[in-house]
Amino acid sequence: MLRGHTLYTAFFSGALILTVVLSAFLFYFVPLPWWGDWLIAINLVTAFYYTLDKLRAIKQGYRVPEKMLLSLGFLGGTPAAFLSMLLLRHKTRKTSYQWQFAVVTVIQLILVYIWLF
User: Is the Cβ–Cβ distance between 42 and 74 less than 8 Å?
Assistant: First the structure.
């Protein structure tokens, strides 16, 4: 049985591998810059993990660690995370998670501003 850090490592490793493979596939078939392919891939993976966590919450199975969901958002999956929270009504009542998600979003906005200007 996986717990704590080991569970996070297992989920995060799988998510990164899935994102890299999907990004490489998109890079080959979709004429976008590498970062566009990455953003599409990370958002698809983020939506998948939010949906998985919602289904596991309903069935009371192993949950996707919150740290994992926030990490995916930080790596570029914030749009999918936000839409998943709204559409699935997932993580919308947990105030501590909402604050952490807001911090991740603000950090991303600052980094994008620095990158662009």
Answer: no
